[in-house]
Design a protein that fits this description.
Structural class: mainly beta
Shape: globular
Strand order of the largest sheet: 2-3-4-10
Helix content: under 10%
Low-confidence stretches: none
Number of strands: 12
Distance between the termini: 6 Å
CATH class: Mainly Beta
CATH architecture: 3-layer Sandwich
Amino acid sequence: MRKARYAVAKTGDIVPDTGTIVRLGSSGECALFCHKDRWHATGSLCPHQNAWLEGAPVEDGAVVCQRHGYRFDLATGDCITVGGYGIPVFPVDIEGDTVFVSVWEYD
């Protein structure tokens, strides 16, 4: 297993407080958010019914699934609406105007 780091977007291309799905090389994708000048990357799907988080709004530090309103803390991925659900969160780094997301990949 190795840690992979992907350049996924330019900072100016992301609408604040709105989810944008970005590719992580061959690893799949994630949802990228900028909330109060902090960057977050989460899984791209709500685990309740696999609804995409593309366009999902951020309210009070939580991404809100547009299908049923489930809310997930951007920092931890924990569902704050219903217990037992969560989404993965990934480290995000900014260099210049480029957004990088890191994930663990299997060799």
